[in-house]
Amino acid sequence: MKKKINTVYYIITSLLVCLYIVSCNEDKGNYTYRDISEAEIENSKVTDTIDIEPNSPIFIDPKVTYSDGVGKGSYTYRWRYQKRVSNNVSYPIMSSSDETAVLDLEQLPLDLRITNNYDVYLQIENNETGIIYQKKYLFRVKNKIQTGYLAISEKKAGVELELVSSFIEDGVTILMPYRSILDFSGSTYLKDGRKPLGIYTCNDATAPEPNDLSIGKILYSVFLLTDQSTDRVNAIDYSFKDAYNLSKISYISDNLLTEGLVAKKMRGITASATATQYYGYISGHWYFASRYMSILNFMHPINRYKGTSTLYKAAPYIGVNASGAVLFNEDENCFMIQTYDSFDDLYVINTTNLWGTTKIIDNEGDAFSFNNKNYELIYMDSKSTNEIFVIVRNKETSDYELLLFGMRSGMVTPGSRIRKVIPQSVDMSTIKRYAFNPSEPIIYMATDDKLYIGLASGANMSVKEITDQLQLPAGHKISCIKNLKSFKSSQRNLLTVATYDPNGDLDTSGALHFFEMNITTGNITLAKHPEKAAEGVSQIDMKWGDFGKIIDIDYKEK
Fold first, then answer.
1. pLDDT digits (tens, 9 = 90+) for 474-527
2. What is the DSSP letter of 369?
3. What is the DSSP-derived secondary structure letter of residue 137?
4. CA nearest 457: which of 443, 478, 444?
5. What are phi and psi of 182, to 5 degrees?
6. Neighbours of 73 (CB within 10 A)
7. What is the pLDDT of residue 487?
8. CA 280, CA 231: separation in Å to the nearest integer?
9. Residues 6 or more apart in contact with residue 152 via CB below 8 angstroms
10. How large is the C-alpha radius of gyration of the chain?
11. Greater confidence, 18 or 69?
12. The whole model's pTM is what?
């Protein structure tokens, strides 16, 4: 049996060998062997580093040589860049051509205009073989108008943005003024014929367009408040589309919009690196919106009695906190509190915690009463340290009072209330602007021509005029004062004062001044940059001119 199997195996093997020999003999040599054309990019093993400013044109003409062979003259040239999002790597196309490897762009793609380093690849594909030859470039993008002190100003034509930018160059932080940013960036924002009301910047998980899910967005909002509309501009390049309008994040009943969908004031609390919970004063009502934990748009007024549909008249000032807000009820002359006790509240659209407020309860022995019927609210605001500052007029005594209190976990912090009577030597009826020191009980108050400092740390409040310390240009009036560290703790503790010359050119007579504050005396001195100069580094005065009439200022962090 075994012998029979071996014989069969031998016969099959012999046949296979014969077939192989025959097939070799019948190959007539008709194949033509040609080399494949290769594209060699000069220094393809080296990464070229290119420094780029977003508004500058980009022109790269790489030297490419081609060998003879299959596919020569038939190549596709693609420029791609690497963007990492959620641990996934994407390689969007910047440019594609069948004719040239040259990269010739007027500007970078939008999501490459953010200050950062990017890997950019030139890929040359042989169309006949599919083989790709590649060279890597490192683009170091420096967006000099991305961060800094951003102000909204009034000009003859309408609204404009002014910027004292902050960027790092050779390891040193540079401050540089950029005037008329909307014009400079070529923004299509409809600024003509509008009056500026304010500016508000914040982290925002859906900015600037709620339905735009592109991976290159900066999750940051820049709200421009004007008398005609409330809009956002793109935080990357200040561009504008109608989709950035406040209406895209509002579901407010038309019957409540007696003055239109215009936010006259906005305040918020940073909840995370990408999100904010914010408040807007719209048509005489305060509204709440959230971009943290869940997405809630402006929907229902919060100046309503909790558990009811009854609204009360709310003053146009608010104190905000990570767990809620404080409003002033002008119908009953009392302070109201809105709270959300847990993250679960943010998922329940009709929760009475979000869409209602209750009176703040007084405790015996407190420095003041939240339910004093004689109080008339003059001003209220809050700081990043959970403290709220209030200016009231006592109609019974005609005194103006400074009230301070803390707020945490949805309640007024016990024992935190401070009441100081402002000396009558100051004509408080002329005060138009207020700013607070974020770390000390110090308040700055300004008329059109004067600046006062109020010290509330002693038994009695002391106030003195410090206008001479401003060293204002001749004829200038004060248009805005603000301490940005009160709202954004990452910034330097400086008092910002904007001035303008009412007899000068509205487009160029505005100025910005930044002052150091003495936490003991409250006195101010013109700030220097850098704050502490290294050896060989000169300091500059932190004052700039040739702006419009600045109405409000915020710090743009992204």
1. 899 999 999 998 888 778 899 999 999 999 999 999 999 999 999 888 899 999
2. -
3. E
4. 443
5. -60, -40
6. 8
7. 84
8. 13
9. 159, 160, 161, 162, 196, 198, 199, 224, 225, 550, 551, 552, 553
10. 33
11. 69
12. 0.85
